[in-house]
Inverse folding.
């Protein structure tokens, strides 16, 4: 008998009968290694572990600042002690749930304790919020477990200890899932990535007659109400759904197998189950095991079961479930259509890459999976190696393979027949010469951050496929290190990292590294955010001891609040005075397109409600600040929270490196160059700028004979182009230093090297010089397809070169570039007047 089928048979026999002792205990330092693991595992020392022979769960302890992650709930009141954080089948290390709050439990509690340790056959953890500390309304949650149970009974009791009428909500809440449903009063959820093959379900099994959980329940003085729900975990949502249903009444067993016409099991198939008859309800999805087997229990009745898998035609089936009469269902599906890739570099070595599947006319757009995973996200597939296979529906596709902005691309029109496998082979040639420089992105996220559910391995693969070589670990409010995942994926030769974090709150966010994560502590030992960015920056500087090479940057900065009008009063107050001296960099580019050549500090747009509003332009204000003497470095990042659309690759930086090999990148060297501004920001072109004496970005030189000569070289891979090079002098755009392919065709080329010229820049005063190379009439669509980055213009610019006109310290000129420094609370009318004044009234 198949293992999973046997397990369900055993489960049915034991679902009500208790066996040997389950366990409930507080986790101390000696027990931390017993905490369950998985994608969303969040247990720490001081939490409580509940386990039996089937499942293991973590109930969060009454600990300072206890929360599963930053984003379960925001704010000071967003703590969630006494809630369920983890639940997985025992020994499978496959936790996929972040939080389950009975009656939406949130905020401070009076205690969390072991009520029964399990020695008598029952283990119970109790969470209490006393009436004295909650306006006279007491609440108690009991998490109960017995051997043989495939989940927990969670009982909530509210007691009105006040003299007033109280209204309580008995609605539960859980996070974070993408595919959810509710059938027959049982809520279910699938793992964010269906390939993780886990599902959850819960439903009320004991409650007062007539209770409607969606409506407030009234409690008169002295009254109480008790509700018990069952929370189950299985290998799929339908498996968990049936286990909850078994707590309510009769269920019948269904076992089955799915294989192809050649008899091979289809582990990637999904079985979509719905009730049949007068009442149609979505019961969820079944995930078969590696052998194509599945075993579930369901309430009595008739059901439809649709077998589906990418690259194959659906197979609809029906089944009738009766208690005591096991049902069997077997489906045979067609052989899958697929594309097999064998992609190498010039030397024939397999390498990470990204494939796009763009539907041609007459073929429906393909959806390979959720946007936050690497192996199939919308119409893309990101792979850690060049040898991979992607199942895809038959049809006509434009298939494009890329690896970032230094390599060539592969493109083929593919007509895929049913059941056929197309062999896609080719070499990605490294066209752009970046010797002595490495690509870096200082700001990205995975599910550890809490505000997204992108798997950490998926983020690493995304980085590798887009050819980011140095990527510090920057999860929200959690010290973390991507190194073990990089090693496990076999990508140590492709990506270098260093442990760090993003310190996040309602105002300024700051990235910083290096740190040493402290596992099994709240936030892995991260500091607490402060609304004053100067205090936050200084806290990071000294956290875990002073580190001379520690990096601190402000992410997606509010340039007005941070540096001009900290009080949001509509007038200049100098911003947070001294802030510019305690940070190393700011993000002038954070995903999206660039406005480096906008020539104005704000624009008028529309908010989400269609109302006109004023949007400040970060790049322009940075140029204004440079003229005020600010010397932090400009940064280009992606701030990725997904793989498709909001993934990495759209922006990156290049910094000098003694080694071109990612495994040999020295984070200290990279950080020191970043601090000094020895960097280029790019969404595609590889720009190089230096003066005749070899001075490059971030450094200072002296003008010769009233000016300086710039050597400007721009390289692009075969799917990127530029048509304009503009030299900025103290933030302004001299017309004589504006070169376009249309006006200056002899200066632009069509090969890898697009521009290679020496430009004379006349100077009458000290100046910071920035060169911008941009493709104003081209985009990034070949590399990004249907992702939003495809609409971006390829653009690169350098951190400023400082040029002195005499033997003195560099003197910023104070020029605000034709506009007053923008302040808070600017109205649309005020913005229009300033824009009109700057354009001479036009």
């Amino acid at each position: 008998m198949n293992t999973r089928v046997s397990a369900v048979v055993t489960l049915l026999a034991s679902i009500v009968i208790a066996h040997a002792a389950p366990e409930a205990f507080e986790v101390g330092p000696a027990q931390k290694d017993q905490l369950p693991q998985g994608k969303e595992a969040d247990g720490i020392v001081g939490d409580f572990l509940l386990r039996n022979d089937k499942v293991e769960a973590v109930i969060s302890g009454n600990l300072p600042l206890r929360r599963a992650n930053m984003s379960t709930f925001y704010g000071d009141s967003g703590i969630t002690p006494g809630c369920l954080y983890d639940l997985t089948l025992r020994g499978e290390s496959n936790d996929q749930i972040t939080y389950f709050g009975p009656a939406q439990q949130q905020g401070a509690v009076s205690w969390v304790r072991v009520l029964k340790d399990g020695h008598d056959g029952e283990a119970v953890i109790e969470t209490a919020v006393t009436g004295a500390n909650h306006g006279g309304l007491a609440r108690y949650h009991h998490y109960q477990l017995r051997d043989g149970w495939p989940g927990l009974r969670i009982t909530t009791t509210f007691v009105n200890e006040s003299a007033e009428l109280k209204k309580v909500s008995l609605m539960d809440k859980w996070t974070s899932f993408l595919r959810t449903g509710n059938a027959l009063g049982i809520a279910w959820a699938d793992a964010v990535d269906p390939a993780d093959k886990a599902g959850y379900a819960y439903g009320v099994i004991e409650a007062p007659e007539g209770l409607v959980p969606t409506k407030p329940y009234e409690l008169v003085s002295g009254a109480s109400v008790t509700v018990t729900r069952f929370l189950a975990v299985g290998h799929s949502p339908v498996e968990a759904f049936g286990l909850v249903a078994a707590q309510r009444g009769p269920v019948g067993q269904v076992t089955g197998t799915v294989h192809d016409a050649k008899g091979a099991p289809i582990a990637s198939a999904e079985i979509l189950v719905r009730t049949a008859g007068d009442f149609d309800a979505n019961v969820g999805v079944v995930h078969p095991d590696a052998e194509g087997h599945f075993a579930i229990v369901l309430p009595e009745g008739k059901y439809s079961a649709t077998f589906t898998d990418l690259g194959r035609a659906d197979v609809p089936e029906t089944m009738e479930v009766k208690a005591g009469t096991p049902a069997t269902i077997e489906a045979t599906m067609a052989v899958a259509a697929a594309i097999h890739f064998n992609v190498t570099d010039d030397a024939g070595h397999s390498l990470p890459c990204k494939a796009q599947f763009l539907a041609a006319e007459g073929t429906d757009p393909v959806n390979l999976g959720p946007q936050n995973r690497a192996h199939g996200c919308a119409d893309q597939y990101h792979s850690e190696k060049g040898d991979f296979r992607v199942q895809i529906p038959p049809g006509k596709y434009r298939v494009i393979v890329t690896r970032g902005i230094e390599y060539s691309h592969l493109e083929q029109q593919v007509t895929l027949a049913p059941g056929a496998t197309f062999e896609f082979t080719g070499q990605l040639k490294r066209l752009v010469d970046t010797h002595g420089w490495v690509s870096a992105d200082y700001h990205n996220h995975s599910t550890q951050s809490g505000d997204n559910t992108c798997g950490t391995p998926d983020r690493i693969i995304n980085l590798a496929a887009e050819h980011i070589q140095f990527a510090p670990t920057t999860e929200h409010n959690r010290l973390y290190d991507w190194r073990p995942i990089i090693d496990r994926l076999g990508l140590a030769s492709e990506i270098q990292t260093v442990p760090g974090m993003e310190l996040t709150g309602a105002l300024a966010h700051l990235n910083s590294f290096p740190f040493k994560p402290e596992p099994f502590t709240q936030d892995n030992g991260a500091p607490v955010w402060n609304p004053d960015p100067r205090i936050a920056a200084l806290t990071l500087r000294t956290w875990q001891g002073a580190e001379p090479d520690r990096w601190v940057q402000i992410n997606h900065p509010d340039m007005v609040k941070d540096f001009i009008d900290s009080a949001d009063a509509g007038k200049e107050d100098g911003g947070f005075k001294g802030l510019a001296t305690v940070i190393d960099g700011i993000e002038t580019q954070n995903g999206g397109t660039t406005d480096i050549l906008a020539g104005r500090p704000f624009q008028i747009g529309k908010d989400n409600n269609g109302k006109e509003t004023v949007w400040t332009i970060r790049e322009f204000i940075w140029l204004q600040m440079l003229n005020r003497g600010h010397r932090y470095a400009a940064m280009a990042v992606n701030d990725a929270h997904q793989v498709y659309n909001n993934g990495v690759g759209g922006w990156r930086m290049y910094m000098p490196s003694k080694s071109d090999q990612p495994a040999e990148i020295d984070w200290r060297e990279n950080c020191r160059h970043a601090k000094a501004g020895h960097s280029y920001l790019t969404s595609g072109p590889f720009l190089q700028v230096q003066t005749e004496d070899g001075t490059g970005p971030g450094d200072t030189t002296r003008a010769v004979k009233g000016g300086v000569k710039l050597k400007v070289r721009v390289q692009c891979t075969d799917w990127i182009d530029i048509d304009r090079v503009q030299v900025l002098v103290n933030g302004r755009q001299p017309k004589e230093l504006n070169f376009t392919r249309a006006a200056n065709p002899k200066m632009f080329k069509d090969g890898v090297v697009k521009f290679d010229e020496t430009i004379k820049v006349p100077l009458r005063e000290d100046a910071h010089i920035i060169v911008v190379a941009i493709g104003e009439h081209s985009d990034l669509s070949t590399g990004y397809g249907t992702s939003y980055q495809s609409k971006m213009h390829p653009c690169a610019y350098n951190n400023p070169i400082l040029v002195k006109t005499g033997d003195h310290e560099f003197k910023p000129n104070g020029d605000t570039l034709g506009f007053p420094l923008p302040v808070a609370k600017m109205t649309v009318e005020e913005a229009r007047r300033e824009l009109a004044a700057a354009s001479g009234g036009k």
